[in-house]
Design goal:
This protein folds into three domains: 120 residues, 3-Layer(aba) Sandwich (Rossmann fold), CATH 3.40.50; 48 residues, Arc Repressor Mutant, subunit A; 64 residues, Homeodomain-like (Arc Repressor Mutant, subunit A, Orthogonal Bundle), CATH 1.10.10. Helices cover 59% and strands 11% of the residues. It contains twelve helices and five strands. It has a five-stranded parallel beta sheet, sandwiched between helices. α2 packs parallel to α3, α9 packs across α12 and α10 packs across α11.
Amino acid sequence: MISERIIVIDDDARIIKILKMALTEYEIVDFMDSEKAVEYFSRPRDINLVLLDVMMPKMDGLAVLEKIKRTNKNAAVIIMTAYGSKDVAIQALRNHADDFIEKPFAIETLREKIRGFLRQRFYFDRDASDREKKVERIKSFIKRNYSESSLEIIAEEMCLSPKYISRMFREQTGESYRDFHLKARMDAAKHLLESTSFNIDEISYKLGYQNPESFMRMFKRLERVTPTQYRRKFKEGRQKVCSKAD
């Protein structure tokens, strides 16, 4: 699904860590303190989905749910309940929660629920005049998922045709989808060359290239140096800066 900001409200740090590791395609904002979460939602925000635990100190999930829906009525809220707490889930649904899932849950089950809600949101909103917002979400998705950002995948998730998305992207940004995707890949490559010890084969794999030769050829065409030369120049430049500082 196109990169979205998902709010996770849970006082269990393990759950938050698992969700961040498993749902890398989304931007996750987390709260372990229910009162701070309520403060965050004290004014309307562009939030499409919230994962909300029920049993929390200070303020329970049902109270948080009520406050979220008061200011963000269009945000879908999935309640996370402990095993055997279906009565609480039923009460949450009566209070306008959109769905619930029992802990411990399978990540794929949760992912499908998330995809369903976000896809529905895009489907009903596809003829709206917020093309700029859609393009920004596409750009965010590409930057976060540069190795898996084909136009076909994005078109399927947004329930739009690849041709329409390609035209919309160019009209809004002045550049082609392909060029932006390529630039995002090269920016990611430079970051990996500068900040990691991954070899060229490993970086090529992380970027989604089928072979290192394709990556090296494209990198040199755009940057005028090979990846190895770029890394060497970066290290030399950093050493000079450090020497001057000393």
